[in-house]
Amino acid sequence: MTEQTGLKVMVVDDHPMWRDAVARDLAEAGFEVVATAGDGLQAVRRAQAASPDVLVLDLNLPGLPGVRVCQELVGANPALRVLVLSASGEHADVLEAVKSGATGYLLKSASTEELLDAVRRTAAGDAVFTPGLAGLVLGEYRRLATEPAPATADEPGAPRLTERETEVLRLVAKGLSYKQIAERLVISHRTVQNHVQNTLGKLQLHNRVELVRYAIERGLDED
């Protein structure tokens, strides 16, 4: 049984040949492709009906832009993972995608193997970016951390993190992937995921973007 067996994926792209090729590659690799869509409004409707684990999303869509699709679907279901697959490497597009709730951003110049690996890692909760873009996104996390945050976890009576949860949170804030954190702490990838999910629940946060922002605000990314 492969790692991706049972993972439900949806592909959204307005170019039929590209959309079909990506869906075929994913299906052949063992993912369950539950739906595809060619425009933004169709994407929202079909994603709500198909409930994919990972949405592979182009940004340039007719009807409703990809960032709006991402905002609507992640807003309705914070557990949804969104991997943007775009021809654009413009910093503004990358940051807008992250702000809309995407957890990964891959350029269409990526190889099939890079795409498959990105979908697997996105499903596992990792933040996945084309090389060179990860530093940009971490910088944006730092900028966001200067703005007021809604989190109230420091108030009296708020849940307290365990020592290990805090340790994992510190490494997340430094930009490490779950795999790197697991290797650093000599624990399993699954254990890292569990710690992150527990921390999200305790702090009443919804995704990794909010988690990193919370950590940086509190200086947990500093040595």
UniProtKB/TrEMBL annotation:
Stored InterPro entries: CheY-like_superfamily, NreC/VraR/RcsB-like_REC, Sig_transdc_resp-reg_C-effctor, Sig_transdc_resp-reg_receiver, Tscrpt_reg_LuxR_C, WalR-like
Keyword Metal-binding annotated: no
Task: Enumerate the UniProt keywords alphabetically.
Answer: DNA-binding, Phosphoprotein
* Domain called Response regulatory: residue spans: 8-123
Q: Which residues carry this modification: 4-aspartylphosphate?
A: D58
Domain (HTH luxR-type) ranges: 154-219
Q: What is this protein called?
A: Response regulator transcription factor
The species is: Streptomyces siderophoricus
